[in-house]
């Protein structure tokens, strides 16, 4: 009997938007903690990476380890506190990469805790030079290389101390606040050069140094965990890598906290009660880098299943590959590597699993030109999702993105004809998507929808995307009570109710994620109607509150705030109103509108296991619009 295999489903690394193949990257301080994890994440996604360290022996050791893993990584000995050494480093990078560079990750930093009145002039000079001036100078030096590449990205590793008050770190906090603002300014000034700039602000990250800190202050560890809704330390490298991907092409000027909800959870944490002089502890234990660091990459076992041609027998493929898995003494999950260039999908997981024994299972991925980026952290295989309003625009793009990453998706629409048409299109693409006719303005219909979803997915749900929304423009004084009821009901109450209904299913899954499709109108004043803006502001705050309240249920909640995105409806508006088009582009540093398939990767990323420590965030995807409040004379 011949088994029919569907070449449909996940196509993560196979999509160039989700790959760094052919790109070059520079990561400062890449031999330990966050830097080390970022080097590996970028290299695994296909980038050629150069890094640096003050410690030559440690650098050589890491380079040997990376070579053994098959990564293309080189390194230089460099003390980034030295301006001449920074210049020498970038000269070497320029020669190494032919005068071009796609990515620079500014990672170096340090701190020691004192009361503000106890910092000396030397303390101030050292901490500002290390944490701020070195990053600023490295960005200046990298600018011509990034510009020459035609597609540049800068990521600053900042800290939550640049967002909220942490006692005993006033100079370090000021430097990190400066870094966050620098990211905004460079995003606007350098957008014309096709350079995107963002900052990532981690909370405590599990590293040997952080573990030492926790061992020295048991109460401090308890306080950290009590102030963190997710009650644990987390990961960061995947977010840094995502911001460098072509998939993040419309994200710039953002500061994203990766903190398990810490920065949205109330009052400040005090540190001086536990560490009078953290610098002494650092020196004693011979640690050279900052506390906010990690290396927490999950691993899997790879089985090289090679398929010479599409005409090969499917039975032969199953026998040859599953036999090797069954004979293996290792435990799964296993990832069969499909090595056909440009095959758009993976083999259906359940078809392979049917041939396995001893409760082993596979996770399948496709790789471009045999490049394996098969981490389960970057896959949605085995997960279920609901996307409201999924037949048009952003919703349609999100449905496809989630399904291509391996999720089984259910969506809804008021228009039955349009829904059936989309379902046929998705089926033809090999995507696993079902749908329901539903008017989300109706509370009973929302309840019926989630009831159907519960039956469909066995009482569990991993992902809910609240996407529906509408507006019509009036002066504030002209909105009626009916207007208010309709717009608030559609844009806010429907999302709140859907989240309530989905909560038990998300909780039952053990790994739940909610993403609200909000708008920049909830962040800055946009002339699209005050009721719509108020509803979107409420959505952004709701994401924060649910992130804290439902963290105990392993449910993460975030909102994504797009600017004007090109859809058939918006295209019609633009065609009719050229001045509006011009005004939108003039206020957007990237000088263009976004595409629906530039929003969908961010939504999908927030649902991935790779984003497991991101919650309570509102991320604008707007080409820099929300950080461009002033006229840019250098534009």
UniProtKB/TrEMBL annotation:
Organism in which the protein naturally occurs: Centaurea solstitialis (yellow star-thistle)
Molecular-function GO term, any one: oxidoreductase activity, acting on the CH-OH group of donors, NAD or NADP as acceptor
PROSITE patterns recorded: ADH_SHORT
Phylogenetic placement of the source organism: Eukaryota, Viridiplantae, Streptophyta, Embryophyta, Tracheophyta
Coiled coil: none
Entry-linked PANTHER family: GLUCOSE_RIBITOL DEHYDROGENASE-RELATED, TROPINONE REDUCTASE
Entry annotated with the keyword ATP-binding: no
InterPro entries associated with the record: NAD(P)-bd_dom_sf (IPR036291), Sc_DH/Rdtase_CS (IPR020904), SDR_fam (IPR002347), TR (IPR045000)
Full protein name: Uncharacterized protein
Pfam families for the chain: adh_short_C2 (PF13561)
This protein's UniProt keywords: NADP, Oxidoreductase
Superkingdom classification of source: Eukaryota
């Amino acid at each position: 009997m011949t088994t029919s295999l569907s070449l449909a489903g996940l196509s993560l690394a196979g999509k160039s938007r989700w790959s760094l193949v052919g790109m070059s990257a520079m990561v400062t301080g890449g031999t330990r903690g966050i830097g080390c994890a970022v080097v590996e994440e970028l290299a695994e996604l296909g980038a050629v990476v150069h890094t640096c360290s003050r410690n030559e022996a440690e650098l050589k050791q890491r380079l040997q380890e990376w070579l053994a893993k098959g990564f293309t990584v080189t390194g230089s000995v460099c003390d980034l506190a030295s301006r001449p050494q920074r210049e020498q480093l970038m000269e070497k990078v320029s020669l190494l990469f032919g005068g071009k560079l796609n990515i620079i990750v500014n990672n170096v930093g340090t701190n020691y805790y004192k009361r503000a009145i106890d910092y000396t002039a030397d303390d101030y000079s050292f901490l500002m030079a290390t944490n701020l001036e070195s990053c600023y100078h490295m960005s200046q030096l990298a600018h011509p290389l990034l510009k020459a590449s035609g597609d540049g990205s800068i990521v600053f590793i900042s800290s939550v101390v640049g967002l909220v008050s942490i006692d005993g770190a006033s100079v370090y906090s000021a430097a990190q606040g400066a870094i966050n603002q620098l990211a905004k300014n460079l995003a606007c000034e350098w957008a014309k050069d096709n350079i995107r700039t963002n900052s990532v602000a981690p909370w405590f990250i599990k590293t040997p140094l952080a573990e030492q800190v926790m061992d020295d202050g048991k109460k401090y560890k308890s306080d950290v965990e009590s102030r963190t809704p997710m009650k644990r330390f987390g990961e960061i490298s995947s977010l840094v890598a995502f911001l460098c991907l072509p998939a993040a092409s419309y994200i710039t000027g953002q500061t994203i906290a990766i903190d398990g909800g810490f920065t949205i959870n109330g009052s400040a944490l005090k540190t001086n009660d536990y560490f009078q002089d953290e610098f002494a502890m650092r020196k004693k234990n011979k640690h050279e880098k900052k506390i906010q660091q990690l290396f927490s990459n999950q691993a899997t076992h790879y089985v090289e299943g090679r398929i010479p041609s599409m005409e090969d027998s499917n039975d032969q493929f199953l026998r040859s590959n599953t036999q090797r898995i069954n004979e293996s003494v290792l435990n799964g999950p296993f990832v069969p590597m499909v090595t056909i260039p440009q095959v758009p999908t993976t083999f259906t997981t359940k078809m392979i699993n049917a041939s396995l024994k001893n409760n082993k299972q596979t996770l399948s991925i496709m790789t471009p030109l045999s490049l394996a980026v098969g981490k389960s952290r970057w896959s949605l295989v085995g997960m279920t999702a609901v996307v409201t309003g999924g037949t048009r625009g952003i919703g349609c793009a999100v449905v496809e993105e989630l399904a291509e990453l391996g999720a089984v998706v259910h969506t809804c629409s008021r228009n039955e004809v349009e829904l059936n048409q989309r379902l046929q299109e998705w089926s033809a693409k090999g995507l696993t998507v079902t749908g329901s006719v539903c008017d989300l303005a109706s509370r009973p219909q929302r309840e019926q929808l989630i009831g159907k979803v519960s039956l469909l997915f066995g009482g569990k749900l991993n992902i809910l995307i609240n996407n529906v929304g509408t507006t019509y423009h009036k002066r504030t004084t002209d909105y009626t009570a009916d207007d208010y009821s309709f717009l608030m009901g559609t844009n806010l109450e429907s999302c709140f109710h859907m989240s309530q209904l989905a909560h038990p299913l998300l909780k039952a899954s053990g790994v739940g994620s909610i993403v609200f499709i909000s708008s920049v109108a909830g962040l800055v004043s946009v002339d699209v109607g005050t009721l719509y803006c108020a509803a979107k502001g409420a959505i952004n705050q709701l994401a924060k509150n649910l992130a804290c309240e439902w963290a105990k249920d392993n449910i993460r909640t975030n909102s994504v705030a797009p600017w004007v995105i090109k859809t058939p409806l918006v295209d019609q508006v633009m065609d009719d109103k050229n001045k509006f088009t011009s005004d939108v582009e003039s206020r957007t540093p990237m000088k263009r509108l976004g595409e629906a398939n530039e929003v969908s990767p961010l939504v999908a990323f927030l649902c991935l296991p790779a984003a497991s420590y991101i919650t309570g965030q509102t991320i604008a995807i707007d080409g820099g619009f929300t950080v461009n409040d002033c006229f840019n004379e250098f534009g």
